[in-house]
Every structure is written in structure tokens, then in C-alpha cells.
Amino acid sequence: MDITAFLDRFFAIAPWVLFAAIVLSVYFASRGSRGGVRVPIAQTFSCTQCGHRGKREHMVPISREGSIVWYCPRCAARL
Ligand SMILES: [Zn+2]
Description:
- The protein is an alpha+beta fold.
- A hairpin with a 6-residue loop joins strand 1 (44-46) and strand 2.
- The chain folds into two domains: 1-39; 41-79.
- It is rod-shaped and about 85 Å long.
- 53% of the residues lie in helices and 20% in strands.
- The structure holds zinc ion.
């Protein structure tokens, strides 16, 4: 194969390859950041009463004077 013919073919498809790479990287970047915002797996709350720290699913939210405070199940049972 002629080298100039190869270069012609390469530069004919190079912009499309570049475009596809940019689209893919933007897609994965936006998906990654959205996932980072959405995943509060490591988020913990400390109990207002005893200071026990637990995951959100294990804590009990209680509305008090217009704001949400978090209690551990043990303290919530004693309220
Ligand atoms: Zn507690």
C-alpha cells in the first residue's frame, strides 16, 4: 500500500475517530459525576442524643423545631 494513500485514508477517518472519542469521554465523565452525586453510601449521621454514628438507613429522622435531627434506633425508641 502507498504511504500517501494510507495517510489520505487515515486523515479521512481521523476527525470521526476524534469526534467519537470526545463524545464517549463526555458521556462517561457526565455519567461518572452524576453517579458520584447520587451515591451517598458513605454518608453517616450522628445521633443527636448519644452521638452514635450510623448510616442513613440505620438512623431515624425526626422533625424538631423545623429542622431534621437524627437519632439512632435505640434513642428513637426511648423518645
Ligand atoms: Zn442515640
